[in-house]
Amino acid sequence: MKTFDIHKVRADFPLLKREVNGKPLVYLDNGATTQKPQSVIDAIIHYYSDMNSNVHRGVHYLSQISTDAFEVTRRKVKDFINAAEEVEVIITKGTTDSINLVAQCYGKAFIGEGDEIIISAMEHHSNIVPWQMLCDEKGCVLKVIPMDERGMLDMEAYAKLFSDRTKIVSVTYVSNALGTINPVEEIISVAHKHDVPVLLDAAQAVQHIAVDVQKLDVDFLVFSGHKMYAPTGVGVLYGKAKWLNAMPPYQGGGDMIKDVSFEKTTYNELPFKFEAGTPNIEAGICLAAAIDYINEIGIDNIKAYEDELLAYATAKLGEIEGVRIVGTADKKSSVLSFVVDGVHPYDIGVILDKQGIAVRTGHHCAQPIMDQFEIPGTVRASLAMYNTKEDVDAFIAGLERALNMLR
Ligand SMILES: Cc1ncc(COP(=O)(O)O)c(C=O)c1O
């Protein structure tokens, strides 16, 4: 087994060396986006210096090598999530793009008036709004799995939400606002007993936890490159071929066609059927470098290291008077959300920033969660593999300083 060398990992991320507001940067906003290792930055430079060209189009040399590199990413994603076939990997712009694709295309094929879609009370807006838009269009109904005060889904209530009109379940693997790791195996097995497919939003999962789509038997799984050390503008939609083949495309344009005439257009095979227009080639190619980086460190090493760091940070934060951690599920990953009695989260975020400490404050694109907890928002510290106990100590000291000023 490979060993996890935090000093080496940190040295791989050039941005971590910079100062912010005259203080060494403590970057704890990884749930929003991660920093990039030198190997990914090098891959971006390599792409534009040596191979920039459009993909899937030209006969010329550069187009061929960029097409090959783009397809290497597809292969690496397939292996990374253990998909059965490369054609089940659709390269998108990100998680939001992937969920909209499924809502529209699966919706066109399988959802009609009066049908029901199950989501959960802890979804990111990206896994609420596309389904609401579909409901407005089709007259279908959104049903919501409730969660308790610790941020855990009510699985008994979930089992009772199914009816013969249920057409899809779409839930998050890990909550971006609470850190809850949902019991996705059980969610999938209950849905499959009703012959209902499941989409997992793995935007906060794949960079922290080993994901095996065949073992999970999940029907769709989506994630974003930029949250897993790759550039922005690229993401993944994994779908079982049987579903993807049965769904019509929703965007028309280049790459997704076989033949076009003014009378009729026939669509391309998978995966290209869902990849209309020139993709973000650079980001697509460099996603492979990010996957290589994660594989080199080892996802199980990353999980073990981050779990220990989360436990350390949770204990330290719990010692501060007046702090209430929001999201205390049994199983959590890398997210520490909290509020402080009588202090607005935004004010804490601003004073932390003055000390070079980057956190996120607000509703984290999950307003229904904040409504349930009756809070305006939280302060969220979210961890990545390059964070250290020293980062946590600096954050705790910075928070204490902020609270001394604000209370
Ligand atoms: C759980 C979850 N789903 C979806 C998204 C949306 O991701 P993107 O903005 O990369 O499309 C995020 C981003 O924070 C997220 O955390």
TrEMBL record:
SUPFAM superfamilies, per database record:
PLP-dependent transferases
Could you list this entry's UniProt keywords, alphabetically sorted. Answer: Pyridoxal phosphate, Transferase
Q: Which GO terms describe its biological process?
A: cysteine metabolic process
**PROSITE patterns to which the protein is assigned, alphabetical:** AA_TRANSFER_CLASS_5
Q: Name one Pfam family in it.
A: Aminotran_5
| InterPro entries documented for this protein | Aminotrans_V_dom, Aminotrans_V_PyrdxlP_BS, Cys_dSase_SufS, Cysteine_dSase, PyrdxlP-dep_Trfase, PyrdxlP-dep_Trfase_major, PyrdxlP-dep_Trfase_small
Kindly list the GO molecular function terms attached to this UniProt entry.
cysteine desulfurase activity; pyridoxal phosphate binding
Q: Which cofactor does it need?
A: pyridoxal 5'-phosphate
User: For the Aminotransferase class V domain, which residue ranges apply?
Assistant: 26-395
> What catalytic activity does the UniProt entry give for this protein?
(sulfur carrier)-H + L-cysteine = (sulfur carrier)-SH + L-alanine
* Entry EC no(s): 2.8.1.7
Q: Say what the protein does.
A: Catalyzes the removal of elemental sulfur and selenium atoms from L-cysteine, L-cystine, L-selenocysteine, and L-selenocystine to produce L-alanine.
Question: Per the similarity annotation, which family is this?
Answer: Belongs to the class-V pyridoxal-phosphate-dependent aminotransferase family. Csd subfamily.
Name of the protein in its database record: Cysteine desulfurase
| Taxonomic placement | Bacteria, Pseudomonadati, Bacteroidota, Sphingobacteriia, Sphingobacteriales
